[in-house]
Write a structure and sequence with these properties.
Largest sheet: 6 strands, antiparallel
Strand content: over 45%
Distance between the termini: 28 Å
Oligomer: single chain
Number of helices: 1
Radius of gyration: 18 Å
Length: 188
């Protein structure tokens, strides 16, 4: 028999979902006990971003703020099994480079999460390993930098679905599902 109830993600992070499934509990909605996000690079804004986060993008020459955090689940937010969470990613890679990427998911217990990676209040519950080699390269946007070196400009989504006993990450490109991202969980 399945019992429908709201549950909170426990301090044991993601493994609480699996333990609930083993007991036969069906959870349709959860209330996040932490913020969850990923490190991101965003356009650098003088006077807004710390100078130590400034880096030049080798593909475009644009000044970027590195190690900013893009939060995709806010603390106390209701997370539903019926609503996947889609996180947009943008990568640039040289034409001859590989197309496998690691994305570390960070979490934070603070009510107000930090804006940048590096704070003591951040944890890393898991890492998603995305393999874009399954996507035909001719679908990627091909560009050339100022030095004449060609690269791919790739936008894709990492889609997270939380189900009883399982957290699934999928890769989506141009609206089409291109399989799962492998997930490596940190120890509880």
């Amino acid at each position: 028999m399945f019992i429908q109830r709201e549950a909170k993600l426990s301090s044991n992070r993601w493994s609480a979902i699996s333990r609930g499934a083993a007991l036969g509990i069906r959870i349709s909605s959860r209330k996040a006990r932490r913020h969850y996000g990923v490190a991101a690079s965003v356009p650098f804004i003088d006077g807004v971003h710390p100078l130590k986060t400034r880096s030049l993008n080798p593909y475009t020459g644009e000044a970027r703020c590195i190690n900013a955090i893009k939060w995709f689940i806010e603390k106390y937010e209701h997370v539903s099994e019926d609503k996947p969470i889609s996180m947009a990613f943008h990568r640039m890679v040289w034409i001859n480079e590989g197309l496998k990427f690691r994305t570390g998911v960070v979490d934070c217990d603070d009510d107000e999460p930090p804006e940048y990676v590096g704070g003591a209040s951040l944890g890393q519950p898991c890492t998603a390993h995305c393999d874009l080699t399954v996507i035909p390269r001719e679908l990627f946007t091909r560009k050339t930098n100022a030095a004449g070196k060609p690269y791919y400009d790739i936008s894709y989504n990492l889609v997270m679905t939380i189900r009883s006993g399982d957290v699934h990450f999928g890769v989506e490109f141009q609206g089409k599902n291109y399989g799962s991202a492998k997930v490596q969980y940190a120890h509880d």
